[in-house]
């Protein structure tokens, strides 16, 4: 364990006080769903000073090729697995390989003292963790870049402040659900002949058990923070299982959270790491462990469905992947709208769960300020907007970043071949671009192909790669219907509509509501169209195959704890 | 459908207004957990007038031997099954036999207009239903007596006002969970170079689909009302599947709720009946139907576990059965305490999910006001208290009522034989008592046997019959440990402790909390010890095999609906 630091004396009660006003603000933001964040989103030196960015980079580099120090129980070996998508070099970091039984035993033991903390104290500790994690945002940015392949800015904000905000959001929801249960009550009732009886009642919140949090490769922490804080708040310990190529950000986070626990005088085993390698996976062993009570999963739809089916005796929360649609109908400002869309198609090489993939376009084209624009012209505009954004290596680097997995390049190749074989057209080919800072980076500009609506076997699944299908539909209505049906049947996390027609928009809202999918309308180039704001956007509906949970709502937290009750008569003579 | 009545004009909006203050009161009661009820619990003629009780009885008798009029879709035949535990005569009532596909189709169609109602309107309609159901409390009392075997008073209050209160409690929780989601929001954020972006967001609550509510034989409506109201509030239609011998109370309730829906101008198929016979069960077909989204189950632990395992792709809420323990340690007022306990052992012939069964008694006896009382003396006291309560047929009738199923009599026989074969002792034998009003009634006074703690194969399962095990334990601590372990491993809904020692009570609370079981302490004879108060007691913890849900808490309702979101930029020129 790291040496105790001077502010060792901050007890959970102190931390509850320290962060009480922030908890209030978070609860307020969840209710109003206005923009709010207690974290710094920008890595600018103007905010952080000149030295912090360089220290972060140096800190990351100092970790390479060494054993990662993490003092936790049950270490039985080491795991060395990660390769940087930017350098294609192994990171060479050796993490503890853990014995699952020892992890679960340690986690269960840690839950006993944690059980005694009030919700306010738990919130205080979790907030303290969040700010401690923010302190390492620079090192985390480099760790995220070199595992997930994100660009520096996204790795700093999207995997830093924005992800922490999601954790605090879940914290607030858990607090709210627990606050709904009073701790004591008096109850009095007239039982006729025997007279009035008074009962003193007390209610104790109980955790369920140990949670296993399965993280994904491209956003290692974005769903991990909400899961960890939802679990800690409700009394459950969390074992984090990172993707084999995304261990470092998770390991850094686990270590930091454990340090905060120790400083608060608590058992650090409320948060544990279970790293593995692709060749020796331990996920199923963890999920099937008798002591695993809760599963929080982010990753592929296939494994998510497997978990939902085979781990039904645990509480299971999943966020997987969607076949995200865009319906084009009509535009007031086509440049701004297609600009926003092109940004979304390029952003992090479409490796986000919210990335658009399928652009449903009426064969007769769209209306632009009332004028007709044919399919080919719209398609060319989209391809041009993407070509424009990827022409300069510097711009491509900032927007597309790196491709996390070699398989994504294979997928691009496969899609190209299958589309051409089926008579579709490649409108803009994918190519590697030369990253200005990392000459060996695994990169790919988006592949843009056009297919017919009938060729659903080409576009009807999520392709985890920068691939965009322009789908020729019979009409706007047909486009809407096809997109909504795919959302319902194949899953969607974010769907997009561009229309200048209020009636069409209203109809689309009804259809997507029936499909159980959320819809972003006319999102233009003034912000990333697929930005998901903590405290404001309900991320994932849970109504389609893209996941069964929303991060965060009351359903995400209310069942993670249960209520045990005691009652006893008040002696007849006792005061009212 | 029944003919429209004069107050046909009460729209959902009218009903929302009519019941708004009651909704506030229900929400308040859930928060304070004080006693509250808008319903009349007593069947006294002083409250209801002289004619209502007789009308109720006559109304019940008029139903016998006839077709039950219920105009709902998909009727493909009739179901005639029920036999009265009081007369052992068939009721001869013929209910519609339904085609499941037609029921699900009708339910799904009904959900579309219902979807448009606000939570307040839904609450208004549900409250209106509850009061309409209260109006038929007398006929329901007779229907419940002659199917479940309950005594008249319990059938009137326990299956009337008390059950409706549980429905309203679930309604209030659903309202609260839905109120947590705002319907619109404005969100504004600075995106640096592109400036501030404002988004208008809207949030739409979506139902999950059709719920199947499986009711039990002995309390046909007690868990049905909470399930139905939780589902209706959150937008889900409910198909009620009664126990083959408990159709009438459910059919009466379904018909009444459908009438209220019609009067409010709504599709009555939000509530449907699916009756079956033991020889041709349809429960599994309903639960496995592709359109079944939610299962609310009350019944045996075995079938409940089957559902949890095999219907994991649905939302499943279960309340099954527990092996409810009583731990005896010490007493201040042993007469009042053992009197309360004896009432609990006799009450409705122990056919309640809250009925005590296993009395764990230290071999060296208990302390009574500081004095020792040996095991045999305590055992004799308990047996005597039961004998005393069952000596007079009139008193036995009011307390023990009738035995719902012939199998319960078989169980008594089996337990007697197994206990004697294993060297245990029968301290008080079970016998039929002569019911003063129904000479053919299926009755049985409690069987009281004594066994050793080691003989868990004799007492370690719920015996659904009036059977009470006095279990000889090494010490109070051993009694506590054994009782808590059985609660955790075999399930418990209500557990009981009698102790005058505050330290022992505190220890017991910790042990039962760890076991995931609620504990009622020193409950004496001034009220039924196993009375579960809506709005106040959290019924079932969900932490042990006696069920996975609590009726009601936020977890019981929060996942029955989901959130679909829309968002759109506010044009740059729009007003703040």
Q: What is the count of helical runs of chain A? A: 20
Give the structural class of chain A: alpha/beta
Q: What portion of residues of chain A belong to β-strands?
A: 15-25%
Largest interface: A-B, 67 and 67 residues
Q: Got a strand count of chain A?
A: 20
Helix fraction of chain A by DSSP (H/I, runs of at least 4): 40-55%
Instruction: Find the CATH superfamily of the largest domain in chain A.
Output: Aldehyde Dehydrogenase, Chain A, domain 1
Task: Estimate nothing, just give the exact number of structural domains of chain A.
Answer: 2
The protein's oligomeric status is: homodimer
- Low-confidence sequence ranges of chain A: 1-6
Can you tell me the overall shape of chain A?
Answer: globular
Q: How many strands, which pairing sense, and closed or not: the largest β-sheet of chain A?
A: 7 strands, mixed
CATH architectural designation of the largest domain in chain A? 3-Layer(aba) Sandwich
Mean pLDDT of chain A: 96
In whole angstroms, the N-to-C terminal distance of chain A is: 52 Å
